[in-house]
Specification:
189 residues, alpha/beta, 2 domains, 9-stranded mixed beta sheet, 6-stranded mixed β-barrel, 4 helices, 15 strands, globular, acyltransferase, Phosphate propanoyltransferase, metal-binding, transferase
């Protein structure tokens, strides 16, 4: 049995350097609030507002460092509240996705695309993946134990020397399974 730690991912946004400059001012650098499970990744002190056709969320946490393209990750429940219908996608795959307005203290950006419901996934360091016989992009079946035990299918394996072992699910999935960050899941394959 292969056990992995669970990380529950609330709504958040990854910003490009260009959008950081528009939202916070030219040359602005994000401030680290806390390190995340993946090496080099952090939750920033800064937040932004996001506005959809039907609703708005203030204080959406920015995750750093800056990325090549801006991407907002929400749960399906969040998407309903905003009035948009983003697809379930792997991070970075934003072509053809809905856009949204992002508001910061120095300006705003009308993103033409970039909103997704992140596909559930497990980050594997290459050594863990090799030891367990798991390939990058492999679809896995994972079980969480407890009062609301649940089996997740189509969990994407993401393998890199840059990653640390961690399963990422969103708040809707965590609530359905009755789990929280720090709980564990078992890979069934």
């Amino acid at each position: 049995m292969y056990q992995v730690p669970i990380g529950v991912s609330a709504r958040h946004i990854h910003l490009s350097e260009a959008h950081i400059a528009i939202l916070f001012g030219s040359g602005y650098e994000l401030t680290v609030l806390k390190e995340l499970s993946q090496p080099g990744q952090f939750a920033a002190t800064e937040t932004v507002a996001v506005v959809g056709p039907k609703g708005r969320f203030d204080k959406v946490r920015i995750l750093g460092p800056a990325r090549g393209k801006t991407q907002l990750e929400v749960s399906q429940t969040d998407a309903f509240a905003l009035g948009i219908a983003p697809p379930v996608r792997e991070s970075g795959n934003i072509a053809g996705t809905p856009g949204i307005k992002v508001i910061g203290p120095a300006g705003e950006v009308d993103m033409p695309e970039g909103v997704i419901v992140a596909a559930r996934h497990i980050h594997f360091h290459t050594s863990d993946a090799a030891k367990w016989g798991i390939a990058d992009k492999q679809k896995l079946t994972v079980r969480v134990e407890g009062e609301r035990a649940l089996i997740f299918e189509n969990v994407v394996a993401r393998v890199s020397e840059q990653f640390a072992l961690d399963m990422h699910i969103d708040t809707d999935e965590a609530n359905a399974a009755g789990v929280k960050t720090g709980d564990t899941a078992v890979i069934l394959k």
